[in-house]
Amino acid sequence: MIRLNDIADVAAEFNLWFHVDGAYGAPGSLDPRKKALFAGLERADSVSLDPHKWLYVPVDAGCLLLRDQAGARTTFNAADADYIKVHGYSDEEAFAFWDYGIELSRRFRALKIWLTLRYYGVRRIAEAIAEDNSLAEHLASIVSRAEDFELLAPVELSICCFRYLPAAFRLRLQTAVSETEVAVINEELIA
Predict the structure, then answer these.
(1) Highest-scoring range by mean pLDDT, 134-138, 163-167, 180-184
(2) How many CB atoms lie within 10 A of CB 51?
(3) Which helix (DSSP H) or strand (DSSP E) does residue 46 occupy?
(4) Alpha-carbon distance 109 to 52, whole Å?
(5) Which positions ≥6 away from 127 have C-beta within 8 Å?
(6) DSSP helix/strand/coil, 162
(7) How many angstroms from the chain centroid is the CA of residue 90?
(8) Residue 173 above 90 pLDDT?
(9) Greater confidence, 173 or 103?
(10) How far, in Å, CA of 83 to CA of 99, rounded?
(11) Within a 10 A sphere around the Cβ of 35, how many other Cβ atoms?
């Protein structure tokens, strides 16, 4: 299995930007039992997050963490743009978001992330993530023992993939349903 450290080694060898799409999974690194899965994350040049996926934040807030913001500033800097007029800076307003992305103006989407982190704190969020992982592991153990369900992948984080599998199919009886029929049954179950 290829791990983040393996990818980081290749990126370092060839002087490539190492980006981790941590949209869903990166917060899983807050569960101490899962730290090994994220070895190498700290070597990333950038990490993207979708806080609504696993930081318990409402939809419409994304996050890009950059090790060195100079690359983004060089790419998006609008200092020479005639359509942007800056009439003055104070120390509190010196950070120009338009110099780090394609949007010139934006809502304060980060407020919901900040409020969530501020109110609950990293410790409580980490505990919730660990509990989610434990629940997925528990569900996997139930599915593994069931005669009419099949675990489709190992549980590494909070996702448990399984399907209904009729006993006739599992036992390969002459009257067994086909793989196509099993897929149809499972599609109907989730519809």
Answers:
(1) 134-138
(2) 22
(3) strand 46-49
(4) 12
(5) none
(6) strand
(7) 36
(8) no
(9) 103
(10) 14
(11) 12
Which amino acid is located at 18 in the chain?
F
Cα–Cα distance, 109 to 115 (Å, whole number): 11
- d(CA 129, CA 28) in angstroms, rounded, equals 6
List the one residue out of 105, 69, 108, 114 whose CA is nearest residue 86. Answer: 105
Q: How far apart are CA 128 and CA 131, in angstroms?
A: 5
Structure token digits, residue 182: 């099993």
Q: Which pLDDT band, with edges at 50, 70 and 90, does 133 fall under?
A: very high
Say if CB 53 and CB 59 are below 8 A apart: no
pLDDT over 70 at 45, yes or no: yes
User: How far is it, in rounded angstroms, from Cα 157 to Cα 129?
Assistant: 9
Q: What distances in angstroms separate CA 117 from CA 49, 57, 110, 190, one per listed residue?
A: 14, 9, 11, 33
User: DSSP letter at 23?
Assistant: T
CA gap 181, 101 in Å, rounded: 48
Query: Quick one: average pLDDT of 81-88?
Result: 62
Length of the chain: 191
CA nearest to 67, candidates 7, 109, 19:
19
CA angle 8, 35, 130 (to 5 degrees): 140
User: Residue 59 is which amino acid?
Assistant: V
pLDDT in tens, 19-44: 999 999 999 999 999 999 999 999 99
